[in-house]
Design a protein that fits this description.
two-stranded antiparallel sheet, single chain, mainly alpha, 7 strands, about 60% helix, 3-stranded antiparallel beta sheet
């Protein structure tokens, strides 16, 4: 696959960068629209996104570089070549979460409600962003056969794109993208239900994405490692356990209390 989306000679835009931008843009639009329903100002959201995008980008790159330091310590200039790939989503999520907690506390906005708004956009963004890995010919699984790929009934252009350096590979990016698209539908339906409690959409995201990433990571050949363990699988287990605990804690009590879709459980932001 050609990783370049637009080549003007003196300036190139890569598919990876373009799809990341598209994912961020669509996610921001959806989140701002949802936030307005709960009297959360557009300025509050835009300001938050400005810092979240920058910090999550830095966190994702720093996380990836840290666990590949043997390579980057000998190739320092490559640290900044993000168009070649190499963003670890868990690093971005951790950095973004830390900022969001401090930001919402500063302006006295319900952190869990903000997270419930954001995770729906996030999982859609993940579904879109994975196609950047496809265009870069990265984040794939182990070597497989053409016959196996055809038996999966996946589109022909994906099969052709998985032919890299003389071998066919498992399209793990595609599995993750499909799961995230399905997760987007599940989360947006769940969040809109009458008795959904604040924070449970976030907990469901942690469970949903954690399960997917644990299994898909086991199929990948480019995992970040800590000794003999895949870092992403360790983080995925933590996400799943945290999500389950959060869900049952937040679901306690009357179904009429602390509902996400109850306008009484929000207040206008002063920003």
């Amino acid at each position: 696959m050609n990783p370049i989306f637009l080549d003007l000679g003196f300036f190139k835009i890569y598919w990876y960068s373009f799809l990341l931008f598209l994912a961020f843009f669509i996610g921001c639009v959806l989140a701002i629209k949802e936030a307005k329903k709960w009297k959360i100002s557009e300025d509050f959201m835009i300001n938050m996104f400005f810092y979240v995008i920058i910090l999550s980008f830095i966190g994702a790159r720093a996380y990836y570089v840290a666990f590949n330091w043997d390579y980057y310590s000998a190739n320092l200039s490559s640290i900044f070549k993000v168009w070649e790939g190499g963003l670890a989503i868990h690093g971005g999520l951790i950095m973004a979460l830390i900022f969001i907690i401090f930001y919402t506390k500063k302006y006295k906005v319900d952190t869990l409600r903000i997270l419930d708004i954001l995770v729906v956009s996030l999982i859609l963004g993940q579904a879109i962003g994975r196609w950047g890995n496809f265009m870069n010919g990265e984040a794939h699984g182990a070597i497989t056969t053409l016959e196996h790929l055809k038996s999966l009934h996946i589109p022909e252009f994906i099969i052709n794109g998985m032919y890299i350096d003389g071998n066919y590979y498992q399209p793990t990016f595609f599995y993750e993208s499909l799961w995230c698209f399905l997760g987007f539908i599940v989360l947006i339906i769940y969040r809109g239900m009458k008795y959904t409690k604040i924070g449970t959409t976030t907990s469901l995201y942690l469970i949903w994405y954690g399960i997917e990433r644990f299994f898909v990571e086991g199929m990948r050949t480019d995992s970040l490692m800590l000794g003999n363990f895949r870092i992403a699988q360790i983080i995925s287990i933590i996400m799943i356990v945290t999500g389950i605990i959060m869900f049952f804690i937040l679901k306690r009590g009357s179904v009429f209390n602390n509902k996400y879709n109850d306008i009484k459980n929000t207040h206008e932001t002063n920003f």
